[in-house]
Fold each of these.
Amino acid sequence: MTALADPIVTARPSKTALIVGWILSLLPALLLIFSAVMKLARPAPVVDGFRQFGYPDRLIVPLGVVELACAILYLIPRAATLGAILLTGYLGGAVATNVRVENPAFIMPFLCGVVLWLGLFLRDRRLRVLLPLRKP
């Protein structure tokens, strides 16, 4: 049997899985979009935060653009997997930055990454084929 004829590959997610998947996808996406907009606006707390983490001010806007672009890609169904991969790298950097300065808030970007992948897993049947949680 070819992969295209496989009922697991061609089966659409249930309506409940799709709705829950989109809700779980929107939560981290909106959080990341808000974070990106704050970087683009450059309010004093964002600038101070960058300085506390040891990053130069000149990186605030470029990181905001990258964050926004990745979050938008994640919300486009055809580009969602690429967006999730890019956001994983971005959030990995956030985890590393927080760990480097011994900030216990490192758990937030980690959880954001887990939720965004869980949301994508529920709404994209192709991902469930690649990462089966149980044998068919």
Note: The chain has a mean pLDDT of 90.
Amino acid sequence: MGQSPFAKSSSALGSPINRRRSTRIEYVVPIAISGRDATGQAFREETETIMVSAHGANFRSRSRVLIGMQLTVENLLDSQSEKAICIRVTPQENAEDRQVVAIQLVIPRNIWGTKDPPADWRHAMVADSPVPPPPAEALSLASASATRSSRAEAPLIDGLDRRVAEITESALQDLRRQAALIAQETLREFESCLKALEAGVETRMAQRAENTSSDAERSLDHLLYEFLEQLTARSNQVAADAEEDLRRRISELFSPLLKMASAAYPEKKEGAEIKK
């Protein structure tokens, strides 16, 4: 039930859906896709098919289409149209390129206009197509026949409901797988960015520590030079003050002795004055 309508193997018999798969072929035909995009806005886009089968096709599109959305596909050559379900969206590597969208027809039909389709297309269209409504003449039958007719339509409606549910479930499974892959890729990118950021922070911290160490060394050398200058100036000042104090004390200490010597030898003083 999770396979796409373009599965290459037609021998998988795991479910009724797989038994009804039809061969896909490369066939280009202009088509128009219409519906509502991811924003809820109505759109209509003209494009062309890449590959087709009785169950669906894939094509390139610029519209924002999501898995599970119901679309209408129209063959622009003969105006045939059919309802379809988006079952896969494959984004391209370059953002400017168109994404590849795969759709599955609600009712298998050869709306592509292929002249010689594969043999299994006929079986797929017969097996999956609804029973044609009773002719107009049957409407005039007795009430018993009308009752049997209405009962015959009930399995048809139930079958269509089951088919839509199966297609939707298949699309949801593809969406879950894509969401898991996106989450894993996002986690890997986040871890890579985190490691790069951590390495950058360590590099910047090492550079800052190196710069801080160099600045500290320069500041220490400058402070040491200023301290030595201040210490030298202070030492010179202390030595000068000590010398001055020593001279003053020596003068005070010898001053009485000089006075006594002058009193004891006044003639020397007078002789000195006469010589003068």
Note: The two ends are 143 Å apart (CA to CA).
